[in-house]
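Researcher: Let's do a round of design. I'm pasting the structure tokens now; please hold your answer until I've finished.
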């Protein structure tokens, strides 16, 4: 009886960025649009989260296999009992800033009312506020800046690639005097990386590596072709009904790519740094955000 060749089937990877479509995730859009995932032999579908179903929900329920998240956020999830593995690190620098509404140095505004994202992402800022004895009153917001724009709060957290530019487009002027950049003050902790649940990774290592390699290729292509990359980003924004503009997405992409370059090596390294994991764990332990240390060895893919 003749042997019938069986067609191999690659299980689909559902990839969910941590927020809505924009240039923060350009490399993944490029990898899909340019066929880098297909060329690597991995079937990828990009599904964005929603307000009712976050990245964490999707990961916990095994509805997504890979996601982007900040290092501090990943450490909190591991500490809460869901082992994660970092398969690709894109951010080499911290993008968080505090911008002051009163044209003052944020470090002089003790007890100030400062906006912080409802979805999280502010762990480093909370640690800094306590360590510097600023005692900020954190005012949570979702996706807009109404309180800041109307002057109801004294300052707000912002990402240097996103909200910072949105506020500038609204007419706000920021200088070294009224902007505090965490990366310049001993809090340079990496942010975005790609994570999988460890149990999924252990049974899909080959796929995970192919996905990581193709994603890295997407980011490298984006760096070499910024205008074409913005075209791709704008396509995803339109498809996901995101209100934005090309100028903002171009600025975002430029800043995201800058943040991917390590300050010491001057290279785009795509690796999780053990020293930054150690610093993040130390700060979060001191501020009771972790019950026990989360180590580099716990997070890294083997």
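Researcher: That's everything. Go ahead.
Model: Designed sequence:
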């Amino acid at each position: 009886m003749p042997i019938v060749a069986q067609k191999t089937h690659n299980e689909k990877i559902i990839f969910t960025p941590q927020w809505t479509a924009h240039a923060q995730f350009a490399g993944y859009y490029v990898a899909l649009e340019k066929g880098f995932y297909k060329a690597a032999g991995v079937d990828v579908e990009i599904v964005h989260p929603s307000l009712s179903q976050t990245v964490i929900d999707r990961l916990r329920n095994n509805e997504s296999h890979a996601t982007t998240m900040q290092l501090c956020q990943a450490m909190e999830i591991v500490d809460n009992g869901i082992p994660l593995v970092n398969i690709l690190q894109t951010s080499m620098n911290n993008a968080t800033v505090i911008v002051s509404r009163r044209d003052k140095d944020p470090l002089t505004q003790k007890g100030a009312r400062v906006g912080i994202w409802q979805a999280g992402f502010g762990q480093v800022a909370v640690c800094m506020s306590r360590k510097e004895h600023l005692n900020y009153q954190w005012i949570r917001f979702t996706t807009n800046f109404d309180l800041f724009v109307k002057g109801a709060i004294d300052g707000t957290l912002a990402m240097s690639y996103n909200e910072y530019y949105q506020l500038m487009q609204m007419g706000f002027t920021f200088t070294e005097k009224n902007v505090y950049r965490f990366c310049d003050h001993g809090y340079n902790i990496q942010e975005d990386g790609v994570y999988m649940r460890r149990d999924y990774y252990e049974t899909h290592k080959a796929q995970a590596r192919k996905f990581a390699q193709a994603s890295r290729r997407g980011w490298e292509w984006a760096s070499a072709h910024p205008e074409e990359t913005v075209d791709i980003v704008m396509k995803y924004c339109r498809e996901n009904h995101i209100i934005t503009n090309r100028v903002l997405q171009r600025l975002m992409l430029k800043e995201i790519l800058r943040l991917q370059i390590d300050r010491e090596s001057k290279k785009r390294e795509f690796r999780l740094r053990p020293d930054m994991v150690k610093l993040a764990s130390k700060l979060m332990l001191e501020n009771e955000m972790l019950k026990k240390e989360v180590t580099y060895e716990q997070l890294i893919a083997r």
